[in-house]
């Protein structure tokens, strides 16, 4: 796996619109993204990855998933499912509404 540091991706406009409509006061996942996005950075992990190979998920994304997983007391499989089905998680992760998520083994 290789790493191209880029931090958390920008939140797609449609994801923002749907999430803000569904949760006008926000959720824990949305507040974590809005208030702590600077905490989730890729740069500290660049030395731990190869420069060659297929790009993996960004450490910033994986770190945020881990925090959300912990706060909701979820297994890896449940956290991966939340990244697919929960609008507020898609918002937090900067994912399109149609994003199919990632494998729980990641």
Uncertain segments? none
Main beta sheet:
none
Mean pLDDT: 86
Category by helix and strand content? mainly alpha
Based on the structure, what is the oligomeric state of the protein chains? single chain
End-to-end CA span: 11 Å
The best one-word shape is globular
The radius of gyration computed from the alpha-carbon positions, rounded to a whole number of angstroms, is 14 Å
The number of strands is 0
- Taken as a percent bin, the fraction of beta residues is under 5%
Order of helices and strands: HHHHH
Helix content: 40-55%
How many helix segments? 5
Attribute tags:
46% helix, 106 residues
Explain what this protein looks like in three dimensions.
Helix 1 packs across helix 5. The model has no long low-confidence stretch (mean pLDDT 86). Helices cover 46% and strands 0% of the residues. The chain is mostly helical and 106 residues long. The chain is built from five helices and no strands. It starts with 12 loop residues before the first helix and ends in a 13-residue tail after the last helix.
Secondary-structure map with pairings?
Elements: H1 13-22, H2 28-36, H3 59-71, H4 76-85, H5 87-93
Helix pairs in contact: 1-5, 2-5, 3-4, 4-5
Provide a quick synopsis of the model.
The protein has 106 residues and is mostly helical. It has five helices and no strands.
